[in-house]
Amino acid sequence: MSDTDEKLEVALFVTCLVDINRPSVGFAAVKLLEQTGCTVSVPDAQTCCGQPAYNSGDRRTTIQIAKDVIRNFKGYRYVVAPSGSCAGMITKHYPELFADDPDMLLEAQDLASRTFELISFLKDVRGFEAKDVTLNKKLTYHDSCANLREMKVVDQPRALLGGVEGLELIEAEDREACCGFGGTFCIKYSEISEEMVDRKIDNLLATGADTLAAGDLGCLMNIAGRLYRKGHTMKVLHIAEVLAGMGNAPGIGEGTDQ
Amino acid sequence: MKVTSRNFKEKSHDAMQDPDLRAALGRVKEGFTTARSVAASELPEFEDLRDKARDIKDDVLENLDYYLEYFDEKVTASGGHVHWCSSAKEAKEAVLKICQDVDAKTVTKGKSMITEEIALNQFLAANGIEPIETDLGEYIIQLADEPPSHIIGPAVHKTKEQVTELFYEHHQQYGYTEREEDPEKLVGEARAVLRHKYVTADVGITGANFLVAETGSTVIVTNEGNGDLTQSLPKTHIVVASLEKVIPTLEDVSTVMRVLARSATGQEMSVYTTFSTGPKRSDDIDGPENFHVILLDGGRSEMIGTELEELLRCIRCGACMNHCPVYHAVGGHSYGWVYPGPIGAAINPQMVGLEEARHLPNASSFCGRCEEVCPVRIPIPKILRHWREQAFEKQIAPKPERWGIELWGFFAKRPVLYRFATRCASRILTLVAGKKGRLKSLPFGKGWTSVRDLPAPQGDTFMGQWQKKQKQEGQI
Amino acid sequence: MSAREKILGRIRAQKKRGALDGETQDILAARIAKHERNVIPKRGQIPLTEQMDLLQSKMEKLLSTVERVTDASEIPSAVQAYLASQNLPSRIKMSPSESLTELPWGDIPTLEIVTGAGAEEDMVGMSPAFAAVAETGTLMMASGPKTPSTVNFLPENHIVVLQASDITGSYEQAWDRLRSATEKTGMPRTVNFISGPSRTADIEQRLIMGAHGPKSLHVILVGDGT
Question: With a cut of 50, which residues of chain B have pLDDT below it?
């Protein structure tokens, strides 16, 4: 599927982590979308997709938030999120939430059909290729579970990274393994999460890459936080930052004192 | 068995400190996952077979009463007996009665999760009947007096050295007075010890992977051949099976067989798949004279027609735990009841109570790999989420956790307040982190910072910066 | 109320219905009676000579050994040669099936043939396969008065005679053969699908052969499939 409409209005679903922790990912997303000829809107009233409540078993709150999101993103041709996890929440889980509410179900399905994860949207819908971007790094890419299993966004990021001048992509072992983030899981079961992220880090470091990219900020903050805690200096970036030519800015958790 | 699911956190902490267990779990991960993926890729029809296997099990659950009665009729027609049992207690008593009727002193046992579930061994032993596990893994943990830690590899947590010690301790009575260290010889020792037990046992007890309605057959799948010796040498064969094991036809069993071993061990077929139908025929020269099927409900009928029904599709292959990063970290015993791993996390709250097992559905990152590899496509994450919702509704979740979510929800539903709060929070965090770009500790954030640094925000929020930008551009 | 009634009652209550109506029951009865095939892997749906090759390669992968003879009369000498090569004793516990007992054993007087069920002390057992499934290199053994199943399990080494004409592509085809062969007698007490010699990986996941069943499985494949 590709939509080559010249001026396409796209609403950015910023995601709460990008909003609070790494706005540069949001700006990278805007830049990339504009490069493919989209006009980007950022609906004002957005907060979060509701996953923290959903995964904690608070269905009532989740439904309320989902209704807000559906209302706030009405009328846009496309809704794009720089996160497989949030896009998955909207496309796969919102319709489940309203299984017993036919009117809302239709609305949820409508939103789901318009919502995309950023990288797959750029590649599949807009036919984007990373031109005129250079990053002289050895990079390894981490598949977030949502992108890998829920959204099936696996080949698109690799294809786009392949177009970046100077970038060497090195695949890690055991790519299908979770990094141990899991939202509130990594806080409630921090020891188990630690074990998982350590295994992930071992595999990432073994590639010899100096840079890590992924499409979900949750995984990236978890992995970057653990890398720093263990004294490693791998640079950690959201893939949108790499593709938008922002790969030389400080990585996640890197600071400006190094 | 004693339920210890409540202590999941403590047990998993201990498990992660145990180097032997870590090595063992590493072997599970490496061995089983690669083998499954090769087996799946070598059969082009594998995904279609998974769909079909799911559909077969769904049809069974939709019409379970019919298939069970059909099965019963066929077993009876072939000279066997079906004992319907509502509860574990009824099942154990039925087994005991059959054993006592033939004056049994010893019973050999094939590997069976259902007899673990009902704690049959302890019950028989308490009633003066010696149960002898014959699957090597089950035999090892029986000697160690431990529950299984994996559905298909009950002793995966045991090292060779531990087996050496167990056999040294327990096999001296049979004349094995040296510590044997070579695994091949250890297997030979168990083979020799158990061989005689098969021949002298009064009753053989097996589980069943399938019950075939069409023929009244019970089916066991093994690699060792122990189940076959267990069920063909003693005079009485008792099959203990839960009711969702019934499958309509031999063709349907063939379909499910094709996904079972591939998902479990990555074999195309297990070495032995045996269909047993009734007792020995009048002119047969071997086989048991009596054939009994204990058909156990054990809480399953209550799951039918509910969110949990899909769990009854489970064929106990173990693929979910073989691929689970949490299982790889904490091992099987941490789950605190018979079924470990994702399937245990999904089913144990039903079997032992949500309050007791509340950790299990929460200790998941929802990575979804279990559902991805489940041969009958059980949506395990969805069921774990169901339990989390139950726990939230029934206020089983700890208060601070609930309050945290409620507080967050309060803001998330009020964009203006949310915007204000997030802008404050991200600015404060940025300020505190300074040039470092990350925080090493955070009040109220120990769950995060006990393991990792917290990457600091980049100053103002995206929404804050965006609005500023829009205003500036508007002014130009 | 009996446990049976209780269980069936609970299932029906959970499904919010009573016993299935006559029409549904007829549909389900017909489903079982027709026992339609589901998905059959293409891999086994090939001409017999190719099935023989597939079967052999699968069996060898499962660590069985396969020997082909063109005529059943060659079996006794083949067995003798096999036992000698493996340093096995010359006493064979044999299923009392005419397909085996009527072979020219007299030609090889050094072999001691004992017919009957398997016993603890047997070192070598020999039985005829009812069929085999090329798809996975699997033997199908059917028990009966002349084919006791214990011969398949108790002896330390197992020799199986398989006629090429008894090879099928899939389990389903093997079931159909069994159904027609046992139309009058019904399902045999035991049907064993055997895919290789006994093995275990219960000690540190190392593969060790001969856990409880035979340590070796030698298949003599008779005929060339034409």
Answer: none
Residues of C in contact with B44 (CB under 8 A): 41-42
- What are the helix (H) ranges across B102-155? 113-117, 120-126, 136-144
**Which residue of A23, A52, A183 is in closest CB contact with B458?**
A23
Query: Using the beta-carbon criterion (under 8 Å), do B248 and C32 form an inter-chain contact?
Result: yes
Chain C: closest CA distance from residue B327 (Å): 17
Residue B341 within any structural domain of the chain: yes
B81 plus B165 within the same structural domain: yes
User: Are C187 and B275 a contacting pair at CB < 8 A?
Assistant: yes
Is residue B372 in a domain? yes
Identity of the residue in B68, B199, B213 whose CB atom sits nearest the CB atom of C120: B199
Nearest-Cα residue of chain C relative to residue B182: C203
Q: Residue for token digits 């027709």?
A: C34
Nearest to A193 among B451, B453, B463 (CB): B451
Q: Is the CATH number of domain C46-222 3.40.50.10420?
A: yes
Range of the domain at B461: 400-475
pLDDT tens digits, residue range A53-105?
A: 999 999 999 999 999 999 999 999 999 999 999 999 999 999 999 999 999 99
Low-confidence ranges of chain A (pLDDT < 50): none
Residue A239's H or E segment, with its range, is helix A239-243
Q: Is 90 exceeded by the pLDDT of residue C221?
A: yes
Tell me if C203 and B285 make a contact (CB, 8 A cut-off): no
Q: How many domains would you assign to chain B?
A: 3
Q: B111 near B133, Cβ under 8 Å? A: yes
pLDDT tens sequence across C207-217: 999 999 999 99
Can you read off the two tokens belonging to residue C137?
A: 């290199």
Residues in chain B closer than 8 A to A193 (CB atoms): 365, 451
Name the pTM for this structure: 0.96
Which residues 6+ apart lie within 8 Å of B140 measured at CB? B154, B155, B158, B163, B166, C202, C203
